[in-house]
Amino acid sequence: MIKPKITLRFRGREMAHQQIGMEVLNRVKDDLQELAVVESFPTKIEGRQMIMVLAPKKKQ
């Protein structure tokens, strides 16, 4: 089972607009809703990165 990890890395002034990064991760989560579930979603920024881990949905 492969668990993709999505990492957003902020550079320079991008650190002042972290809410845009959160919007991007939410959009990815919504787009992949049928295929995967979010295993870990960032509640805060870790250094200069936001990390989200996905897991595939179980087959029926």
Number of domains: 1
Instruction: Give the CA-CA distance, first to last residue.
Output: 16 Å
**Strand-residue proportion:** 25-35%
> What is the oligomeric state here?
single chain
Protein name: Translation initiation factor IF-3
GO molecular function: translation initiation factor activity
Family: Belongs to the IF-3 family.
Keywords: Initiation factor, Protein biosynthesis
What would you say this structure looks like, in words?
Keywords: Initiation factor, Protein biosynthesis. GO terms for molecular function: translation initiation factor activity. Residues 3-57 form the Translation initiation factor 3 C-terminal domain. Belongs to the IF-3 family. The chain has 60 residues and is an alpha+beta fold. The protein has one domain: 2-Layer Sandwich (Translation Initiation Factor IF3), CATH 3.30.110.10. Helices cover 23% and strands 30% of the residues. The protein has one helix at 18-31; strands at residues 5-9, 36-40, 49-56. It has a three-stranded antiparallel β-sheet, with helices on one face. The longest helix is centred in the middle third of the chain and has 14 residues, at 18-31. The protein starts with a strand and ends with a strand. The model has no long low-confidence stretch (mean pLDDT 92).
In short:
The chain is an alpha+beta fold and 60 residues long. It has one helix at residues 18-31, and strands at residues 5-9, 36-40, 49-56.
